[in-house]
Amino acid sequence: MPPPAAGSDGSVSVALELAALSALVVLLRYAAVLYANRLLATLSVVDDGDLPLPASAAVVSRARSGAASPPTGLDDAAIARLPCFVSRGAAAECAVCLGAVGDGQTARALPRCTHAFHAPCVNAWLRLRPTCPVCRATCC
Ligand SMILES: [Zn+2]
Ligand SMILES: [Zn+2]
C-alpha cells in the first residue's frame, strides 16, 4: 500500500500548475482582445475626422487624404439634407459595403443620379468626398 499523503500531494501540485497555466492563457487572450479593441477605436477615430486626434493618427489621416487633394467632403448638415428613406421590397446592392440594402433598412439616395446606399455607409463616404460612389456624379 503506498502512503496516500505522497500520492495526493503530487497530483494536487500538478492540478495547481495546470490551473495557473490556463489562467495565464485566458489572461493573455483577454489582453489581446483589449489591445485589438483599442486599435479599432483608434482607426474609427481616424475615419471620423472631426474629433481631436492623437499625433500618430493625425499623421495617418494626413497621409491618406494626400497633400494634392485636401479633404472636400460634405459636412453633417449637408449630408442630412440628402433624401433618406426606409428600403422596401427588392434589395439593391450598397456599393460602399457591397452588402444588400434589405427590407426595412434606412437607405439614402443621391438626388442627381438616384443611386441608393445604406445611409451610414454613404454618410461616411460623403464626409470624405462629395461624389457618388458608383458614377462619381457630384451629389449636390
Ligand atoms: Zn452599405
Ligand atoms: Zn450615382
Explain what you see.
The structure is a single chain. The protein has four helices and five strands. The chain has 140 residues and is mostly helical. The protein has two domains: 4-65; 76-128, Zinc/RING finger domain, C3HC4 (zinc finger) (Herpes Virus-1, 2-Layer Sandwich), CATH 3.30.40.10. The chain has a three-stranded antiparallel beta sheet with strand order 1-4-5, covered by helices on one side. It has a two-stranded antiparallel sheet with strand order 2-3. The relative contact order is 0.10. The model has no long low-confidence stretch (mean pLDDT 78). The chain binds zinc ion (2 copies). Residues 110, 113, 115, 132, 134-135, 137 line the site of one zinc ion (ZN).
What secondary-structure arrangement, pairings included, does this model have?
Layout: H1 4-48, H2 55-65, H3 76-81, E1 84-86, E2 92-93, E3 100-101, E4 106-109, E5 116-118, H4 119-128
Antiparallel strand pairs: 1-4, 2-3, 4-5
Instruction: Provide the residue-averaged pLDDT.
Output: 78
Order of helices and strands: HHHEEEEEH
Q: What strand line-up does the widest sheet have?
A: 1-4-5
Rg calc: 26 Å
The computed structural class is: mainly alpha
Count of helical stretches:
4
Helix proportion: 40-55%
Low-pLDDT residue spans: none
As an assembly, this protein is single chain
Distance between the termini: 91 Å
Portion of residues in beta strands equals: 5-15%
